[in-house]
Amino acid sequence: MKMRFIFSAAYAALAIVTTTPAAGHGVGEMVTPHFQQTIPNIPGKSLVVVIVDYTPGGASPSHIHAKSAFIFGYVLTGKIESQVIDGPRRVYRAGESFYETPGSRHPVSRNASKTRPAKLLAVFVVDTDEKELTTSIEQDSSSRSKK
After folding, report:
1. What is the residue-wise DSSP string for 109-138?
2. Cβ atoms of 66 and 50 closer than 8 Å
3. Rounded distance between C-alpha atoms, residue 87 and residue 76, angstroms
4. What is the DSSP letter of 8?
5. Spatial CB neighbours of 77, under 8 Å, sequence gap ≥ 6
6. Is 2 helix (H, G, I), strand (E, B) or coil?
7. 63-106 residue pLDDT tens
8. Separation of alpha carbons 119 and 127, rounded Å
9. 48 DSSP β-pair partners
10. Given its phi and psi angles, is residue 103 left (phi above 0), alpha (psi -120 to 50 degrees) or beta?
């Protein structure tokens, strides 16, 4: 029984982590899975951590996060310009953080510098069975138009 739980958790972790890098990259952006763990005292939830590296001037495409995902963003190095939903654009510097509520639209996420790289730690609290953590807005629009 315990082994089955371990294999199920490992499979869920692999499914989440392997979908992260394929989540529509922008120019000069690299997403690297860093950590994944089911949360034992919150059934059905997992903690997923990715590191987003931006080259100088790099950016993520406009995107929507999973409907179950609460996200904590922490700037490790450099400066990152971000806008969540229709809020103001803001530049966050190394050591500063922000959060995004479940299902948030993220129209701007980019390196604020054209000459220095930037790095962001993104911590997701998400449903364990969530298939995609991030969907580009273009991809989301085209899938809706096919329905």
Report:
1. EEES-SSS-EEEEEEEEEETT-S-SEEEHH
2. no
3. 22
4. H
5. 94, 117, 118, 119
6. helix
7. 999 999 999 999 999 999 999 999 999 999 999 999 999 989 99
8. 25
9. 36, 124
10. left
The predicted pLDDT at position 137 comes to 84
Q: In what order do the strands lie in the sheet with 79-83?
A: 90-93, 79-83, 108-111
**Is residue 22 pLDDT above 80, yes or no?**
no
Domains defined along the chain, listed by start:
2-145 (2.60.120.10)
Nearest to 69, CA basis, from 106, 22, 120, 28: 106
End-to-end CA distance of the chain: 41
Residue 120 tokens read as: 């962001």
**Residues written for the chain:** 147
